[in-house]
Amino acid sequence: MKNEWILEKNHLSYWLRQLRKAGDLIGPLRDKGRDIVFRSVDQIHEVVLDSPASLPSPKEFLLPQYDPMLRLKVTSDGVNLPSKPQPVSPNVHMKESYGKTGVLDLMDKKKRVIFGVRSCDISAIRLLDRFYLEGYRDPYYEQRRKNTLFISIVCNNPDPTCFCIGLGTGPYLEKGFDIQLTDLGNRYFVQTASAEGIKTVKGISFLFSRPRKTDYDDQYEVFLSATARFQKRISLESPRRMILAGRLKDDFWQKVARRCFECGGCVYDCHRQDIS
Amino acid sequence: MYTDGTSSAIITSMNKIMTVCPYCGCGCGLYLHVKNGQITGTSPSRTHPVNRGSLCVKGWNAHEFATHPDRLKYPLIRERKGLRRATWDEALNLVAARLGEIRTKHGPDSIGILSSAKCTNEENYLMMKFARAVLGTNNIDHCARLCHSSTVGGLAAAFGSGAMTNSISEIAEASVLFVIGSNTTEQHPMIGMHMLEAVDRGATLIVADPRRTQIAEFAHIHLRHRSGTDVALLMGIMNVIVSEGLVDADFVRRRTENFDLFEEELKRYPPATVEGITGVKANDIRRVARIYAMEKRSMIFYAMGITQHITGVDNVRACANLVMLSGHIGLPMSGINPLRGQNNVQGACDMGALPNVYSGYQKVTNPGARRKFERAWRKKLPVSPGLTIMEMMEAARVGNLKAMYVMGENPLMSDPDLHHVRESMEGLEFLIVQDIFPNETSEFADVVLPAASFAEKDGTFTNTERRIQLLGRAAGQIGESMPDGEIICALAEKMGYGMSYRGAYEVMEEIAFLTPSYGGVLHHRLSDGFGLQWPCPDINHPGTPYLHRKNFAKGLGTFITVEFLPPDELPDEAYPFLLTTGRLSFHYHTGTMCRRTAVLEREEPECLVEINPADAERLGIRKRTRVRVSSRRGSIEPKALVTGRTPEGTVFIPFHFMEAAANILTNPATDPGAKIPEYKVCAVKIEKSEP
Q1: CA of B280, closest CA in chain A: separation in Å?
Q2: B41 DSSP 8-state letter
Q3: A39 to chain B, minimum CA–CA distance in Å?
Q4: ipTM of the predicted structure?
Q5: Residue range(s) occupied by CATH 2.40.40.20 in chain B
Q6: Tell me: the pLDDT tens digits for B105-134?
């Protein structure tokens, strides 16, 4: 049986409220008429459902800018046990202690549900997975990744600057997501791909119904209309060939480099980690 | 029992607080990420009109210094052995008693106050109220003296208002950008971003700078005039505009005065003469004049390269004359735009943290304005203007100034000729330093008061485009530190003057009441959207994106005749190099914040003196050779960076590094009007340092 369901929009806030019981619910919220930002949801009704497609990257929840890893207890006679551990880091809880080794593990083990990300985010996170979970497995990333459930929403209205259709990273994903929602007006077409996603939906199955033929028709129509709305068509294939064939001169790269303000923003927004 | 308890969820959850970047005058909107009450990261605002989803490297790391372990956590009092921890009561009682004593013994004008362009508008207002109403002196100044006092004076005389005339969001639509004396992409990166966007859209970029800065790499025309010859260069350009009939005669007739006298003076600067003075080819001067004057939507940008000269005010006036001559003002995308360096230096000036004006540039010598403030503050106010920073330092050295109260500034790094500043500090009877970090100045302090950083307080900053923006309090106080405003109020109470407010918003109400240009600026209007741009005279006013529409602030614009004067100290046989100072993109001013930020310190950990390859070869200096740079006032030993960015005969040293402080070398000669020191030109010699 296919892992597809229908969720009435009326039931969305109830569902989110139930999800929040298991961990921190993070969603797109509007900041006083200014930006849309991802942060912990206090009032469920404030979650922005019709947000523009380009949102801040949710990478910070997997690879935060500031990530304490461990704390050592060192005294004059070497590593010693403290009489009472002092919680100092955001990730340390009172009951944790330095243990016998004098090392306090600060690994972030919090459960999170991130609602409202986009297909491009999911695709990017899959790239991160390849980077951090293949070959050498980054334990801090792995822990967070395991504890984070992503609920992505298909973009019915891509922004004028969006180009995921050219890269095959959206607007609609076939696989790789946890839970994917497609807005069908008064209801969501829900798909699950990961074990965690299936478990989450089945855990509260009375909210969901099985899709009927009309739902599939509507879903396909939405998909077609979304793909037709892209204003940018980008193909990576021809630049790739140009680079490989050496048809780009050095001064092209110099021109690109000259524009760089060395802000380091790409490091925080994109897929690389830097330890200092 | 309900278990959904959102309150407990909030404590452990992730929040993002919208605030304003604490570094340069761009005033970018950013979010501080807060996790369990601790600041853990920064991200840009996507829709903010200045930064539109980008930040520079300093902005991306703006959160780090706020939680640095070096933060001052409790008040300190000097005893024989050094500074010791004290309680707030003890420290404030001591300050109140000593200031009171000195005021009684030597008069109020024996006390000097340095306010801070890093603090909020509300705090600067309170500080200026403290100086004038509590202490009874006009001796209050701040670092605008060292960066844009020439602008405040120069533009006020020409137009009646000394601020950026246009908005940052207009830049991308401009067709000519004339950038003089500003390394915009490095010092105001987000404004630089808008400029490059304009270039992408087909705008012509003209850069005048002796150094080949990053922005100059994008310029269609780069004028490399000699340091300190800006007046001649601008006069040359205007000479061409007049002689080739490119003057907007209609504009000059209807909206300006004093043109005839000015035109006479212009005749002395034909391009050929100017070529001799500046080293810029006459033909380039003609080209720039034609492009600038003939195109509409032309904007001028300038920064320290114009202002930090002994002719700083004249440089600014020359720029003002140029925009009036071609009628490029009073419209969107055309105007004159001084780029302010500090996050709130515009606001600190607006709030009257200056010796001669109250908030909103109301002169202390104007009896009407003074009466208004006297009635509001219920106190007799001093009549004559006070001392500027440079005058305070001199007065302290000769013993006329007995006490100083320094809030959020570091004169022992930022002022020229540091050896002299040190003597001044030693000459003081009592020095109060109020800061977030211990710094070079606090080493001399008798009392150190720990203040709150931008992340721990409420208030507003005014950015370079006059946009007043609300801060967001993201974290609790560090140790016993308090917001500057609260410290000032507590101190005023101790000195017997009631200063109690419910919060920063109430201070802003008082500012709005007393300051015409901030008349409609109230916190509740700022909390939605991205603030308001002054002038905003009343509660329904939407703010002003560009100035001098239809009329100049003072009525008619005035052409002020200027004359080229060479810099105070030019290279000679003993000191053959011209030293110019400035900033790097990774660092910021005296380094108290950026040098406590790991990423910034990693990128640029040490002071490098930029020297031209030809000069380096002649002196046998190679990359990273340690050299001794000496002027008539002292010497430092940075390493060399051999680069063609700096022209032959000139060296460049950033002034951030306390271990090789460029300001030990700089010349304290000042502009006669604005009292701004000539940081950009002094004579030095260079030798290889002993190994």
Answers
A1: 25
A2: E
A3: 5
A4: 0.83
A5: 577-688
A6: 999 999 999 999 999 999 999 999 999 999
